[in-house]
């Protein structure tokens, strides 16, 4: 097992969360000057949470490398303890404010995929990463969400679970199981912006990518807390902001800021879209690692 690569994979997962947390504006989401529109979680809480996940991401990547010959569907059982540890570590670090379940699932599986691809000596591409990570999650929706439709009142449901029971939206589980479709689109959007919009800084590129995600993503954090009609409204507003220019024009920037104010006034936080953005940044950063004699290094 290449320890340098495992370490750098986990480090980039943490770095990606911190990098996107630092972006402003992010409609409805945590920034260095704004709290989360829904629950008031602040920037320092997100930093504490991200840093607490480092060991879990190492565990994911190591497990992926150690199980290179194991059937992908069986790997998830091996990864499950790392998910629980990550959630507990985040809750402890933030005194119960953040569980980071979506990040731990989606980014953890990507870390495991990176470890597996390394062990199998396969070329690292965003397609190989997402398809490998997705192979670990086969059946997760039917195992964890479908039983709730038969007896939804036997437990207190999360926003994601409420969205599945009420609207059939699968959230982060569906994103992982179905090949990270929204994440791949976000990676391609970010790469396109890097290639064609050299005048934009990384903050502006990430905000523009987030807006693109919000136009299509079935964000279960929004639908679970405020209903599917609010989700549809947010998707349409995001489309209008992009049509106005988004972060590419002065007029568009004003539209982004107005969109942000509207979401905050209504307590709307697209946390599910934030998970996808973070995963897209992680994949983009991971693909930049260079192979040296000691392994993949930055």
Can you put this structure into words, describing what you see?
With 298 residues, the chain is mostly helical. It has a single domain (3-297), classed as Triphosphoribosyl-dephospho-CoA protein (Orthogonal Bundle). It is 68% helix and 2% strand. The protein is built from 16 helices and 2 strands. A two-stranded antiparallel sheet has the order 1-2. Strand 1 (290-292) and strand 2 (295-297) form a beta hairpin. Helix 2 (43-52) packs across helix 4 (72-93), helix 3 packs antiparallel against helix 4 (72-93) and helix 11 (181-196) crosses helix 16.
Helices, strands, pairings?
Layout: H1 3-21, H2 43-52, H3 54-66, H4 72-93, H5 101-119, H6 126-136, H7 140-144, H8 146-150, H9 159-167, H10 171-177, H11 181-196, H12 202-214, H13 220-226, H14 228-243, H15 250-265, H16 271-286, E1 290-292, E2 295-297
Antiparallel strand pairs: 1-2
Helix pairs in contact: 1-2, 1-3, 1-5, 1-16, 2-4, 3-4, 3-5, 4-5, 5-6, 5-10, 5-16, 9-13, 11-12, 11-16, 12-14, 12-16, 13-14, 14-15
């Amino acid at each position: 097992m290449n320890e340098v690569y495992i370490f750098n994979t986990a480090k980039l997962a943490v770095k990606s969360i911190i990098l996107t947390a630092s972006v402003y504006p992010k409609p409805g989401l945590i920034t260095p000057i704004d709290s989360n529109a829904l629950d008031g979680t602040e920037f320092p809480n997100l930093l504490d949470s991200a840093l607490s996940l480092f060991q879990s991401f190492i565990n994911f990547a190591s497990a992926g490398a150690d199980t290179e010959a194991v059937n992908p569907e069986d790997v998830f059982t091996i990864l499950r303890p790392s998910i629980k540890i990550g959630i507990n570590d985040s809750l402890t670090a933030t005194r119960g404010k953040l569980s980071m379940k979506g990040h731990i699932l989606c980014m953890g599986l990507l870390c495991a995929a990176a470890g597996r691809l390394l062990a199998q000596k396969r070329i690292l591409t965003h397609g190989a990463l997402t398809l490998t990570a997705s192979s670990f999650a086969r059946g997760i929706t039917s195992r964890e969400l479908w039983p709730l439709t038969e007896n939804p009142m036997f437990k207190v449901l999360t926003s994601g679970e409420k969205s599945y029971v009420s609207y059939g939206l699968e959230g982060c589980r569906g994103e992982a199981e179905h090949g990270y479709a929204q994440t791949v689109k976000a990676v391609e959007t970010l790469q396109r912006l890097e290639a064609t919009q050299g005048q934009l800084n990384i903050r502006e590129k990430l905000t523009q990518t987030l807006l693109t995600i919000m136009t299509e993503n079935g964000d279960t954090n929004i639908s679970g807390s405020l209903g599917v009609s609010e989700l549809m409204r947010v998707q349409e507003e995001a489309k209008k902001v992009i049509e106005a220019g988004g972060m590419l024009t002065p007029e568009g920037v004003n539209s982004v800021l107005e969109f942000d104010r509207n979401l905050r006034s209504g307590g709307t936080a697209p946390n599910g879209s934030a998970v996808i953005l973070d995963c897209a940044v992680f994949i983009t950063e991971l693909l930049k690692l260079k192979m040296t004699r000691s392994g993949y290094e930055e």
